[in-house]
């Protein structure tokens, strides 16, 4: 069920400010995070602010000082975590970002905690009209120059794939798969600003032109180009990932193999900081956000509610809608701190 409508209604009815008194009935002096800084790190993807700010608000209600997030791309963000320049991130995609994690020092310097967002999907899609007219279901069919030319947007005879920004991790998977599936001669991986490229892709779709693109969920894109209605997922002939693993789940819920690992978004924190902060660790372990809630909020951003104040309002609405559960996380986090003394 889509959560966009009820989430939007909830947001419309919320005016409460963040960082107000929570249901945890503790004086500020008794809060486990009092006097401790907890700097988050995010990428340049604005749509990641929602889940980051939900977690940040929980830490604030535990007494932590949570300043504005440092904004860098994923590789640099993991290095900052390992070095202690920042303390945590809520947007580590596992396993997509595992190479960034390992190269920055891995478990010796950081810790993966909890399971914040499950069932984050990725893959290639084309417009449904072209898929139905030419019976296209697999990326393997793009090896045929005649099929590839259907998606040629610039007249060079090759299919134009709206792809992934350098430094995000997904670009490495795409480049690997273009070679593995022998598509390099017929498909061009267009990179740059993903959201600018997607704006052009959506505009071409509105004109009735064929489109080929990469995307992920949760994100607003699949609310605008709805799989099964406007577009169709493309399958892959076999699983081929840069890490060489064959046992990774790369299938949609209906069993179709779309080639990209089904990810979960996990919180990663600096190990030394995590070891000293059992309250934060417990909160990280318990925090959970439905993937559909993030897609719904991202759609609100795409529809114009994208200022920092708008995002804070969305966060406040989400917390209010899940108040009992959220307060339960805070209670358990406080208990974890007390039992560690």
UniProtKB/TrEMBL annotation:
One of its GO terms (molecular function) is transmembrane transporter activity. SUPFAM superfamilies: Periplasmic binding protein-like II. Gene3D superfamilies: Glycine betaine-binding periplasmic protein, domain 2, Periplasmic binding protein-like II. Keywords: Signal. Residues 44-320 form the ABC-type glycine betaine transport system substrate-binding domain. It comes from the Bacteria. Residues 1-28 form the signal peptide. InterPro entries: ABC_Gly_betaine_transp_sub-bd. One of its GO terms (cellular component) is ATP-binding cassette (ABC) transporter complex. It holds the Pfam family OpuAC. This is Glycine betaine/proline transport system substrate-binding protein.
């Amino acid at each position: 069920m889509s959560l966009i409508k009820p989430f939007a209604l909830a947001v419309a009815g919320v005016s409460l400010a963040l960082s107000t008194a929570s249901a945890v009935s503790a004086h500020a002096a008794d809060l486990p995070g009092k006097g401790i800084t907890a700097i988050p790190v995010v990428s340049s993807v604005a749509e990641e602010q929602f889940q980051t700010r939900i977690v940040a608000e929980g830490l604030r209600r535990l007494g932590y000082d949570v300043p504005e997030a440092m904004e860098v791309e994923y590789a640099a963000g993991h290095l900052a975590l390992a070095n202690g320049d920042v303390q945590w991130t809520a947007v580590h995609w596992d396993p997509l970002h595992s190479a960034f994690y390992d190269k920055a020092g891995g478990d010796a310097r950081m810790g993966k905690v909890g399971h914040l967002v499950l069932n984050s999907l990725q893959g290639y899609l084309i417009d449904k009209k072209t898929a139905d007219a030419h019976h296209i279901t697999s990326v393997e069919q793009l090896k045929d120059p005649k099929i590839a030319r259907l998606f040629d947007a610039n007249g060079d005879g090759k299919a134009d794939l709206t792809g992934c920004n350098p430094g995000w991790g997904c670009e490495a998977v795409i480049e690997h798969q273009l070679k593995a599936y022998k598509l390099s001669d017929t498909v061009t991986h267009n990179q740059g600003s993903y959201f600018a490229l997607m704006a052009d892709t959506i505009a071409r779709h509105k004109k009735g032109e064929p489109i080929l693109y990469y995307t992920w969920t949760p994100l607003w894109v699949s609310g605008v180009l709805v799989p099964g209605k406007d577009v169709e997922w493309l399958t892959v002939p076999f699983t081929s990932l840069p890490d060489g693993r064959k046992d990774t789940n790369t299938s949609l819920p209906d069993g179709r193999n779309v080639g990209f690992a089904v990810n979960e978004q996990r919180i990663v924190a600096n190990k030394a900081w995590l070891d000293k902060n059992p309250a934060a660790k417990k909160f990280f372990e318990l925090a959970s956000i439905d993937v559909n809630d993030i897609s719904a909020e991202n759609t609100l951003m795409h529809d114009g509610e994208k200022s920092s104040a708008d995002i804070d309002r969305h966060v406040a609405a989400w917390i209010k809608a899940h108040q009992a559960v959220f307060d339960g996380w805070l209670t358990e986090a406080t208990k974890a701190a007390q039992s560690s003394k």
